[in-house]
Amino acid sequence: MAYSNKVIDHYNNPRNVGSLDKNDPNVGTGMVGAPECGDVMKLQVKVNPETGIIEDAKFKTFGCGSAIASSSLATEMLKGKSVDEALAIKNTEIVNELALPPVKIHCSVLAEDAIKAAVADYKKKHGEEQTEETKTAAGAAAMMGKPTPEGMHRDGVDHVLVLLIKRQNIVSGTTTIADLEQQQLAQMFDHLAGELARLSAVPDALIDQFQSVCAVVRDQKVNQLADRLRGDHTEHRLHLRQRDRIAAIRRQLIEEADRVAQAATALARDVFQRCRFHLETFLVAAVAAILAIRLFLELTGYPKLGGGGLHIAHMLWGGLLMLLALIVLLTFLTKAARHLAAVLGGFGFGTFIDEIGKFVTEDNDYFYRPAVALMYVTFILTFLLIHLLHTRWKHSDTEYLMNALQEVEGMALHALDRDSRDRMLLYLSKSSPEHPLVPVLYRLASEVSVIPPRPPGPSAGRGGGGRKKSVRMKHLVLILLVLGSLAATAADSGMLRVENNLDAMGTTYSLAAYGTDRHVLVAASEQALEEVRRLDRMLSNYRPDSELSQVNQKAAEGPVEVSGELFRLLAKCVEYSRASEGAFDVTVGPLMKLWGFYKGSGRLPHRAEVRGVLGRIGYRNLILDAHAETVRFARKGIEIDLGGIGKGYAVDRMIGILKQYGIASALVSAGGSSIYGLGAPPGEAGWKVKIRDPRNSRLTVEEVILTDESMSTSGSYEKFFRARGRMYSHIMDPRTGFPAQGMLSVSVVAPKTLDSEAWTKPLYILGRAWAAKHKPPGFRVYFCEDRAGVPCAWLQ
Fold this sequence. Notes:
Number of helices: 24
Radius of gyration: 40 Å
Structural class: alpha+beta
Helix content: 40-55%
Largest sheet: 8 strands, antiparallel
Shape: flat
Strand content: 5-15%
Number of strands: 20
């Protein structure tokens, strides 16, 4: 039996689990159950005494996943409805919404009964007349509680039967249902009535009725319980067998993994022993490739090959050289072939790494930056690690013998020189003399002829040409790597780059600045981030002690005196609201909380809840006294939320501080959605900023060059949730109380970040046509509309 995705969602993430105070006069409690299915459901509703609207609902359910899903959905459906509207909810609505299979429809019936029982309890507390439906539901709920002399609901009898059978311990720790005969079960069932009489506060009339019911359902109930318990016992025994089988397989896998690990260790040792010299050659070739490419670009004036993205031709050359090295290795067996493969692979790897460096720094002239020294440090550490492993790794007798066998390859190819034979004899001397191959290899090494050595040249000396070659190679590796590292850190040292970041006001603020004095750059960046901390203490509505939070707490009672900075910012917000015809409004705080976007991921409220909150939304409820610099709310429930403008204000303040320190080139970002480009980075016309594709986060739809200007973006992809087949974003239309629809993202380029961030919201809400008539002069606007076949484009 397959369950729908909605059932699985409500089962894995149940809504409104918990309990309300059942003694609260505004809380109604209903409890129903179908014990023959193992489902018991408690549902509670809390009614607003002023409006008669159900403002909260909670449930606790013991039973199957469909019962839990039905309870969870029922509580969601109840919120925002009146008491009479709640009674109109039918189980068929739950069945259709959750796509319940036929065998689980009884779970939806239980949910409907629980709703009616909860409403009946609420009405009983308030002395209201109950309908026939609520009376029936109340009777069913009563049977889930204590017995009554008037009679017992059939489900109540079943519930008592199950409890008493468990009380009799039909299945104990040592006895299973398979050990009991049908007759024994029937006799035990006959004694249940007597057991019931021993329970406290049970009337005689109830016992008589229970005995009459037992006479009818005894055989059927016993057979059902017996079948169920036999099945459980069989399933348990199968589970034990399966568990033992899994344990055996796990032991085999562990043993096999140990063998593989030992083989891999031996292979790694062999690889280090055989390929150390070729790895050194590979590293030298890689560094030489990077230096050659950088020299070529320096001589040609750094042509723009691919901008900040990956240059495909560059990548293909690197991959082609590495592929060619692999072909050489697989085709030829000689040492010369391995040496050639190391050179080709090194050049290809160096080409690849050079392109990665350009991609990471987004600059073709990336080489002369201190951060690039890390690349060369990595090369040096890799070389030293290989050398350390080679000298410190102790080999076993078998591994020495395997290395000696590798030298036999030179014999077969008639390419065994004196150094190779001496190395082979050294390996054999460290191998176990008891191995049958050792004497055979000794005899071969002594009888085979070796290639005569080359005539000594100017570089020849005592100690053997092989050792001299190894020493020269080692020194060449270190010299090239150290020179490359020094070049990366020393060249063009006149221009330095400093980066810093900080988490505050619900987002991450980051900056990158260029200058010639590191101390000035560090001091300026630290002071700019300290300004963000100060603004967080003033503007954050996440901090109860912030100046803004104090206004929200006290302004409904009377005028609140605020700092001149906060007053000017709020006055600017009112100007934006007037210019946007109310589409920008900082009093949306209650709406953000209602929709769950304040410290949450979102929820779908009822329309009645939205209507109740809309009366507290509107910038006209914000009364500012310019002479006294005070703020007052026209009514209770108003709450200011500066989330739509605070980041832009903070970015502008950071830029102002950087300018005070004489910084002329910097990029400041607040969460990537509000950005200001001060000046331009070295060698560039401006700061390159990308606008992401709202339909695919891995793609870019536009690239903007910022020079002493800002860009802010508002998009539905930043924070949203899905409900009933629709997507709801955090961008609220304060006029309707619902998230704006029809737009995916809007980007605004403006001289100040405060302006660009503030205008993204009304332009997102009001759309392209309104923006064409009302956008401020000099602003550039980029629209991505939620319409099929309509591409993202600049407003003309």
